[in-house]
Amino acid sequence: MDTPKRIAVLGATGSIGTQALEIIGNHPERYRATVLAAGKRVDELAALAARHRPRLAIIADSSLLPRLRGHLEPLGIECAGGEAALEQCVAADDVDTVVTATVGYSGLAPTIAAIKAGKDIALANKETLVVAGNLVNRLLAESPSRIYPVDSEHSAIAQCLAGEDMAAVDRLIVTASGGPFRTWPQSLISRAKASDALRHPNWSMGAKITIDSATMMNKAFELIEAHYLFGIAPDRIEAIVHPQSIIHSMVQFTDGAIKAQLGVPDMKLPIAYALGENTRLAGTSRPLSLSDIATLTFERPDVQRFPCFGLAHTAMKSGGTAACTINAANEVAVAAFLADRIGFNDIYDTIAHTLATTEHVASPDYADYVAVNDQSRRLAAEHIARLEASTSR
Ligand code: MG
Hints:
binds magnesium ion, single chain, Rossmann fold, 15% strand, alpha/beta, globular, 7-stranded parallel β-sheet, Rna Polymerase Sigma Factor, Chain: A, 2 domains
């Protein structure tokens, strides 16, 4: 490529966003950040913008816009605020690729706007495909946009599929670390606090995804994400617990062969592979030494201790807005757990209750997703309030 690829980073201050910016900053001959956006962390956004000099910086919480302007207008960097600015910025002429590294449902609207504008997407926001995978795929079919997965498991699958015929794929095998409670008995898990769950053994990530990893909701979401990304039927996608997090996922083929992608647990590799449109960037990650690792082990996921994991196939079988409801209830429940308002098992309880009580739309359009998301959040919040009232904490 002669001119650097111009990149909008949504969720610039998070774990994926900052690592993407490191890669962009280290390779000015390939990449330039033209738009940086963040939710609330205005000072961190300003610091990143001062370093990377995008044309535009956006803070989703518009009450923080004056503060952002104070930092960046002296540098000649345009500033904007609010969720609508996020949707507009992805369609700008000086954006070739959008990195969607925001957390949760908020990633959906800008991703859809990017597809409609024909931009490529480096997708780190798995909730986009979980909530509205059918809609996203319908839009992709009518757009020149391509989605490159940033999630390490899906990047691994894409790497295993390179050069293969999709008709020769038997199944996708998504690896899971098992999270911080992998070896804990049920009785201890039920008393776990946010501080326990935030101690992830292998990956350093944001708080929400770390809790999702502890409940294994993250793995459930990743099975759904794989279903929509690769067009593989739900009953041909499975998870296996692999505590070392060295194999990032695998593909089994119809001749019985399994291909796996291995590497040190470092998100820079999948980020760089996605930014490069599924090509390799030399020097991205520390080389893996197999003799240092010596042992790779595998276990079946335990749906009894981690019932959230079982919601993946519930969601894929139900289709429609089921996964949208699961995602919404999970976001509300995880926030309540992080605030120490509910217990660990109440996360699953809240999701199950919300799924049972929210309206299900079988063939949703965008407005249906918005309505179901709102209703699910309200019902989840009401359930949590009842849980709090019934527990003397
Ligand atoms: Mg992952």
